[in-house]
Amino acid sequence: MSNLQHCDVLIIGGGPVGLSAALQLTKQGVNAWCVERRTTLSRHPKAGGIHARTVELFRQWGIADDVLAAALPPHRGEGFSWTTRLIGGIHLGHVMFDDDPGERAESAEASPEAGCFTPQDDVEPILLQALLRAGGRFSLGTTATVLDQDDDGVTVAVTSEHLTQTVRARYVIAADGVRSATRDALDITESTNPVFGESVGVYFRSQRLTQLTETSPYALSWVINADIVGSFARIGKEDKWIFNFGRDPQLPDSAYDESLCVARLREASGAAAADIEVISILRWQHESAVADSWRSGRVFLAGDAAHRFPPHGGFGMNSGIQDTANLTWKLVRVLHGVANESLLDTYEQERKPVAEYNIDQCLLNTERLKSTGFMGSDPSELATIELPEGEPVRRRIADSVPAQHEQFRSQGQQFGFIYESTAVIGDGTLPPRSTVSDYRPTGHPGARAPHLWIDYPAGTPRSTIDLNDGDFLVLAGHAGQAWSTAANALGLRCVVISQRMTAAAGTSFESVYGIAPSGAVLVRPDGHVGMRVHTGPSDPQEVLRAGLDRILKGPTDA
Question: Is 331 in the same domain as 314?
């Protein structure tokens, strides 16, 4: 027992989800250890599109600038296209992020950040360096197996190259991916949908392809012709690309070697002489699933271990990182003894419905995509697509492109979800509901506290998102000075949003958040509204105290 190691939270899996969890916990003073079974960080970016909400989190963690610096230049990521060949093909249609100035303005109003295309193999080192700067602990080439757990902690066997040690962790986060060994060991079942296709992803560099497409605004191009159906995505910098195409189930995995993959991408690109440097090849399935339980005692599932989606919409890595933003603040407060264990039950209560909604929408995006010739196309139908007599086929695909817009314009899906749990105090009102594309900002309990530009401190334009410092926060209307006194007495930070602060925004804080000038909202550490009080009460300190107790300790029997 002398070799017994201890930590507060052991995180199994060192991808973007595990590293995000470790970074947040470490910055909050928790003794966290993140272990990764691979001997290197990711070489193949299973994800490359980062939603604006995730960039907001990176902004709060101090790494947004680094992630954006590694991203695809904005002029290369303005939309998506369908074409018969990447170079010199027949243009079939496109969807742009901002087809009109009104949509562009709505996007800017939703967040201080925009989404970006930064590949996973660039994101992970940025997260890791931030973790190490914060004093965190990370180990590659290390596996972890949950052995047992009791009321005080979890016993885990942690094995590196020449050493197996026993670790006692108070909690474990399993972020060990799609085929989570931890999930299987805990006998946690999944609700799945049938696999509806297999693909091969080729990650490569090509300076020539980059040069040939330099004026193209498309981050991703679907290529549809008689020879091959696939997609090219230019992500990040350094002339890096991903080419995905369908895998023939009749061929063995060994057939999909570098030679075959390069030949296929040359066919699809229309640039036979382009330089191709293969970085990695990954075979993957189009599938979806959600774990039936996200918690087994003191072990929690996050990211792909808890859910997996088809890629169409880009919610995989984004959802996983946002899982950690929900879970870690709750773990911190339970570990610090200011919250009851029951608070941890709200992780699944809040995040699982979001995952289920994202699965449904990503499946719908995939089904709609089939009408453009992607997945399951009749080869005979595409035989003439590049010939004059193929005009009817080209027209049919072009006519189906507008129906794809929800896959790319998903502001409402990204920002509009509203948590319901015992860590949210309802106020008796019905929230405005966002659609997939249209986000309706609201200060309703459970919603992500809306972004609003304010002048705070004087002379400094600042987003309300930036007021979040990892703790509870009170935002009060311009006549809510009593909230500031009450919050200070409880050790909380309060910002009274004066009319002067929002003068340049063209709208008032109170109208966006749905309160009177004397009202306030209590924002949780994850940026979601925990409680909303429409008008100033006679005893704001007692209202805040009761609200905090309700969120952290659960409802009491009256």
Answer: yes
Indicate the number of domains in the chain.
Answer: 3
Buried-state track 222-238, b at ≥16 Cβ within 10 A, e below 16: bbbbbebbbbbbbbbbe
Regarding whether 491 and 350 lie in a shared domain, the answer is no
Residue 229 placed within a domain? yes
Extract the tokens encoding 160.
């590196």
Q: What is the mean pLDDT of residues 226-251?
A: 88
Residues of the chain above pLDDT 70, percent = 97
Task: Output the six-digit token pair for 331.
Answer: 């773990």
Residue 193 pairs in a beta bridge with 288
* Number of Cβ within a 10 Å radius of residue 2: 3
DSSP letter for 447, please. Answer: B
What 3-state class would DSSP assign to 320?
helix
Rg (CA), the chain: 25
Q: Is 73 exposed, middle or buried (0-12, 13-18, 19+ CB in 10 A)?
A: exposed
Secondary structure (H, E, C), 375-415: CCCCHHHHCCCCCHHHHHHHHHHHHHHHHHHHHHCCHHHHH
Does residue 372 lie within any of the structural domains? no
Residue 144 phi, psi (nearest 5): -135, 130
Say what the pTM is.
Answer: 0.94
Distance CA 476, CA 534 (A): 10
Given a cut of 70, is residue 103 above it in pLDDT? no
Residue that finishes a domain, picked among 302, 335, 363: 363
- Token couple for 99: 């087809």
Is residue 173 domain-shared with residue 309, that is, in the same domain?
A: yes
The full DSSP string for 56-98 is: HHHHHHT-HHHHHHTSPPGGG-SEEEEESSTTT--EEEEEES-
Which contiguous run of DSSP H or E holds residue 282? Answer: strand 277-285
- What is d(CA 376, CA 122) in angstroms, rounded to the nearest whole number? 33
Under 8 Å between Cβ of 199 and 286: yes
List the domain range (segments joined by +) for residue 134.
5-64+118-190+291-363
In a domain, 204, yes or no: yes
Give the model confidence (pLDDT) of 158-181 as tens digits: 999 889 999 999 999 999 999 999
Clarify whether residues 122 and 245 are in a common domain: no
